[in-house]
Each structure stands twice: as structure tokens, then as C-alpha cells.
Design goal:
Blueprint lengths: L5 H21 L11 H9 L1 H16 L6 H17 L1 H21 L9 H4 L11 H4 L7 E5 L10 E5 L6 E7 L13 H9 L3 E5 L11 H16 L5 E11 L1 H10 L9 E5 L7
Parallel strand pairs: 3-4, 3-5, 5-6
Antiparallel strand pairs: 1-2, 2-4
Helix pairs in contact: 1-3, 1-4, 3-4, 9-10
């Protein structure tokens, strides 16, 4: 049982956790008013499950003292607001899935999923959202990972290749990391690349020069050089250069979108833009 001397410190700690959790959760719904706060607006939705878990734990701790402490009541109030805000992505998820399915059906026909071979469907996730994966990450399997030095990669940049363990001819995914065009490495999102490689894709995680040392369009030039290199050398890594898709996150999504439709680009079958900025005016 905590001593009376320890209770004030515990109250302050719970209040601080609730306040920090609420501050971070607020950026799930608030647009960043300044560039320095942009990482919060981008990152808060990605860790909303952890923010919600922290807020729920804080509520449970503070409820034990709520009758005897005004600070405990304030802590509960802040934490409850944090729970509500951190739940927004989950409340929006069902609508997002429904909208996605509707658009896919509109583009490819209502029965397009029936055209996917049964063997391929067998490897799909059981449902779009698996709650436990929000905390442990998506499960991965053993795949082949090759780190190509700059002289073997595109335009003097690093490339990481993730391949299925079995020889074959697989669709290619070019993965482009985000970081506001200023930071990042091809090693980011390695778990996602491993997951895709385990499901019979060859993933090329590419690199590009960063601002402000390299001014635009240096970043786009590097991505285009990467696509040309993958188109020429993809088959050396069991990739099918006639089936290339791009996956980008944040600034990487912006680069993927522009590069895919640039004149002279290799034929790109699909672009997956993960919260990519499109209006930079």
C-alpha cells in the first residue's frame, strides 16, 4: 500500500502522463500550425493505439483516488479526453475500408476479388485490422535481405532488397521512405518490407538525397534513377519488371506519385500513397 508521502508524487506522475497523452492525442485531429509540430500530426495517428492504452491505464490508476483528490479527478478527465481522441482513427477505420472497397469495385468491377487465384487469397490477412498487430507489429517470416552498396545501386545511392526465400519470378514493389524530404533511410519500414517479401513480392527499398543540402528536384531525380535501375536489373533479383508498384509514405508517397506519372517513366502498375501530400501550393 503506498504511503501518504508517496501519494502526492504518484498523483503528479499520473497527472503528467494524462496531460502528455492528451497533448499527443490532440494532434490526431488538429492540423499542425507550424512546421516544427508537423511530426506530431503525422506520428500521433500511427501510435494512437499506444496513446489509448496509456490513457486507459491512467484512468484506472486515477480512479482509485478520485474520491479523495482533486488532482485525481482532473487526471481522470484529461485521460478520458485522451482516450476519446486516440479512438478517432479506429472510429474512422470502418468508413475508410468501406470507401476503399467501393472505389476498388468501381475501378475493377464488383467481382474483381474472385479473379484472384485461391492460392494467393489463402495468404491474405484474415481481416483488414488485427488488433494485436497494433502493438506487436505485423508478423514476418524468413526472407532474403540484400544490402547493395552505392556502387551497385542506382545513382550512387544505397538499396536494400527483400526477396522471397524461394526462386521464382515475383511482382516488384519499390518502397520509398518518408521524412519531409530531409531525413530517413532505406532501412525504415523494414518489417513491412519483410512482410511483403514473405508474401511473394520482391521489395526494393530505395534512397534519395535530402533537403536542404540537395535542392528539389534532386529527390525526384534519384527516385526516377532508382526506377530505371529496378526496371533494368529487377530480374536479377527474381523480380518481374513488367509488374512494378510503388509504395511511399508521407514525402515518399509524394515522390512515388510524381515519379509514376513522369514522362519516360517505366510502366508502373500501381501506386500506394500513405498520407502523401498532394497540395503543396
Amino acid at each position: 500500500m503506498p504511503t501518504k508521502a508517496g501519494r502526492p508524487a504518484g498523483n503528479w506522475l499520473a497527472f503528467a502522463v494524462a496531460a502528455v497523452t492528451l497533448f499527443c492525442s490532440a494532434w490526431i485531429v488538429l492540423p499542425a500550425p507550424a512546421y516544427v509540430l508537423l511530426p506530431l500530426s503525422v506520428g500521433a495517428p500511427e501510435v494512437s493505439s499506444w496513446l489509448g492504452l496509456a490513457a486507459i491505464a491512467t484512468v484506472l490508476v486515477a480512479l482509485r483516488r478520485v474520491g479523495a483528490s482533486g488532482m485525481a479527478r482532473a487526471t481522470v478527465m484529461l485521460a478520458v479526453f485522451a482516450v476519446a481522441l486516440s479512438s478517432v482513427p479506429f472510429l474512422q477505420f470502418s468508413h475508410a475500408v468501406t470507401s476503399f472497397d467501393r472505389e476498388m469495385g468501381s475501378a475493377f468491377g464488383a467481382g474483381y476479388l474472385r479473379e484472384v487465384p485461391a492460392a494467393a487469397r489463402a495468404g491474405w490477412r484474415p481481416r483488414p485490422l488485427v488488433a494485436v498487430d497494433l502493438f506487436r507489429g505485423i508478423p514476418t517470416a524468413r526472407v532474403i535481405v540484400q544490402h547493395l552498396p552505392p556502387d551497385a545501386g542506382h545513382g550512387g545511392r544505397n538499396v536494400i532488397v527483400y526477396r522471397p526465400p524461394r526462386a521464382g519470378r515475383y511482382p516488384i514493389i519499390v518502397q520509398i521512405y518518408g521524412g519531409a524530404w530531409r531525413t530517413g533511410t532505406p532501412a525504415e519500414n523494414a518489417g513491412f518490407a519483410r512482410y511483403l517479401a514473405a508474401h511473394d513480392y520482391v521489395v526494393f527499398a530505395i534512397d534519395y538525397r535530402h533537403a536542404p543540402a540537395s535542392r528539389w528536384p534532386a529527390q525526384l531525380d534519384d527516385v526516377r534513377a532508382a526506377l530505371d535501375w529496378v526496371n533494368r536489373h529487377g530480374e536479377e533479383f527474381d523480380g518481374d519488371a513488367s509488374r512494378i508498384a510503388l509504395v511511399g509514405r508521407s514525402s515518399g508517397a509524394q515522390l512515388a506519385t510524381i515519379a509514376a506519372w513522369a514522362p519516360g517513366a517505366p510502366r508502373i502498375r500501381a501506386v500506394v500513397s500513405i498520407y502523401g501530400p498532394v497540395d503543396l501550393a
